[in-house]
Specification:
single chain, about 350 residues, alpha/beta, 7-stranded parallel beta sheet, 13 strands, about 40% helix, globular
């Protein structure tokens, strides 16, 4: 019997493409010949549609996720047995109603202070015990998959990770502040390091970044600044594999950087990132620069010089990161979910 699984995700300029790629990787982990996947968004994206077609995944028309009648009709029309929600603004009352219509409701969310009324809740951010207890108190009857052990990863991740080698010094730096980069951190960064010539900067710019042209114009005469535009998740992982250090935001890509063994300086660009970043900072796993509004060009340049000039500082950050992100066995999430949604 075929299991129809619906994945609902946010897709707009403010949220970027991270939710899509997380749902895509999640579905690839669970993919078999008895499951059929339907991707459902609040905005239709041609680029996403092209990617999904290659995998024989379906992409439905956009719907309003907080209009329950639309959700209900789609569940019935597509005969969905499982719903995976990666949409942070889905109302709690609608989660309750959805749960009554399907066999399983799975929620992916980075927030700590919400009731989800779901069967399975996934938050693979780094968090302290206080945060875990808070989630448990709010969601007492839910199977909770919390922390980096439940990282939703690209299925080819381990092959890339195994190729990572120890670097003697920093030569190549990866820069990525999300698909949309609302606060224009990318441009801030390239301005701050514009006079540094002995380092190669690999700058990833997403297709929703409205400052793309100004970034390209700034970098066009700088031989050590190379722009990469709108890469797939796998190609992004391959690009990171060839770098020694990273500057970026605290989104999904940060977890990928840490599991790849790529030491990172991080700027907080969204409220839901802050607690996880502070927890990582307290363990010495990242170099936390602070919230976007408080991070000026001078601070970025000083941070870079610190790691270029102080090998011990770099090694210390690398060692701390590897203590908490050294798992080679990434099948814990896959096993847990498959056990919960096994075919009838």
């Amino acid at each position: 019997m075929i299991q129809n699984i619906g994945l609902i995700f946010d897709s707009n300029f403010k949220t970027g493409g991270g939710h899509f790629w997380r749902c895509f990787n999640f579905s690839k982990l669970l993919q078999n010949n008895k499951r059929k996947f339907f991707f459902i968004s609040n905005k239709f994206d041609k680029n996403f549609n092209r990617i999904l077609k290659k995998e024989n995944f379906k992409y439905r028309q956009k719907i309003n996720f907080n209009d329950f009648n639309q959700i209900k009709n789609l569940i019935k029309k597509l005969k969905l047995k499982i719903i995976v929600s990666d949409y942070y603004h889905l109302h709690a009352k609608n989660k309750k109603k959805i749960r009554d219509l399907v066999d399983k409701l799975i929620v992916i969310d980075d927030h700590l202070n919400k009731k989800h009324f779901c069967d399975i809740f996934i938050n693979n951010n780094f968090m302290n015990n206080e945060s875990k207890l808070k989630i448990k108190e709010l969601n007492p009857n839910t199977n909770l998959l919390l922390g980096p052990d439940y990282f939703i990863h690209n299925k080819k991740f381990l092959k890339i990770k195994k190729k990572i080698k120890k670097k003697k010094r920093i030569k190549n730096i990866f820069i990525f502040f999300g698909t949309s980069d609302l606060s224009n951190e990318t441009y801030k960064f390239i301005k701050s390091v514009s006079r540094i010539e002995n380092i190669n900067f690999k700058i990833l710019v997403g297709n929703l970044n409205k400052n793309y042209k100004s970034i390209v114009n700034f970098c066009k005469n700088k031989k050590n600044m190379k722009i990469f535009y709108n890469l797939s998740n796998y190609r992004t992982l391959k690009l990171m594999q060839k770098t020694d250090f990273a500057f970026g935001s605290g989104g999904i890509n940060l977890t990928e950087r840490l599991f790849l063994g790529l030491p990172s300086a991080v700027i907080c660009t969204a409220k839901n990132q802050k607690k996880a970043l502070l927890a990582l900072k307290s363990k010495g796993v990242i170099h936390y620069l602070g919230e976007s509004k408080n991070v000026k060009e001078k601070k970025i340049k000083s941070c870079l010089n610190l790691y270029l000039e102080n090998k011990e500082k770099y090694t210390h950050l690398e060692n701390k990161m590897n203590i908490y992100y050294k798992k080679e066995n990434f099948n814990l999430l896959e096993k847990s979910i498959n056990f919960e949604i096994k075919e009838n």
